[in-house]
Amino acid sequence: MIAATNNPGKLREIREILGVNIKSLSDVGVVSDPEETGINLKDNAFIKANAVYNGSEPVFADDSGLFIKALGGEPGVNSARYAEPGHRREKVLRLLDGVEDRSAYFETVICYIDDNVHFFSGRIDGVITRENRGVNGFGYDSIFEYNGKTFAEMTDEEKNKISHRKKALEKLKEYLEGN
Predict the structure, then answer these.
(1) How many C-beta atoms lie closer than 10 Å to residue 18's C-beta?
(2) I need a surface site. Which of 34, 85, 90, 168 has the fewest CB within 10 A?
């Protein structure tokens, strides 16, 4: 099975959660991710999976986003493009300066293509911290808090037990085991 990503953090999580050998895009000779032009996570997951699917091997792709209530759902589907790399968390913290309601959620949608197209999703609710905390994880992990800890303060094992991606991957795993 091919995971339509070259993100090493995401690949590590996927491999740990599914517990099977997953090929990355670079493993199959694809060096760049397709452009994410969808209007929602489902569209982008499909765009990425469909760009790689050739009919011979199942492919899956996911798209994840951080949705912040006080920002009208931003960064949402644009989470990976919300600001220049290395400045996304700082932009969120700046925009939320002085805001009391810091509720947010992470959502993942997986598109799995075999002979058909299937979608699986997962969500986790939390809050945005007032500063970066922790050294693990990637993306917005150091500012997203769940039950008193940011994702970046959790071990991979702790995060992978509860994360939005875990929930979506568990649904994919159930589908694979049933077929």
Answers:
(1) 17
(2) 85
pLDDT in tens, 129-151: 999 999 998 889 999 999 999 99
Taking only the tens place, the pLDDT of each residue in 7-66 is: 887 888 788 888 888 999 888 888 777 888 999 999 999 999 999 998 889 999 999 999
What is the Cα–Cα distance from 140 to 80, expressed in whole angstroms?
10
Asked if 63 is an active-site residue, the reply is yes
Can you give the pTM of this predicted structure?
A: 0.91
Asked if 122 contacts 72 with a C-beta cutoff of 8 angstroms, the reply is no
pLDDT at residue 157 tops 80: yes
Among the listed residues 63, 125, 141, 156, the single catalytic one is: 63
Helix (H, G, I), strand (E, B) or coil at 68: strand
- Residue 101: which domain range? 2-178
Q: Residues 79, 80, 86, 90: what is their CA dihedral angle, to the nearest 10 degrees?
A: -10
Instruction: Tell me what pLDDT residue 178 has.
Output: 85
Instruction: Find the CATH number of the domain harbouring 76.
Output: 3.90.950.10
The whole-angstrom separation of Cα 175 and Cα 161 is 19
DSSP 83: S
Question: Alpha-carbon distance 179 to 177, whole Å?
Answer: 6
Here the contacts of 134-137 (C-beta below 8 Å, separation 24 or greater) are 137/9
Q: Quote the number of domains for the chain.
A: 1
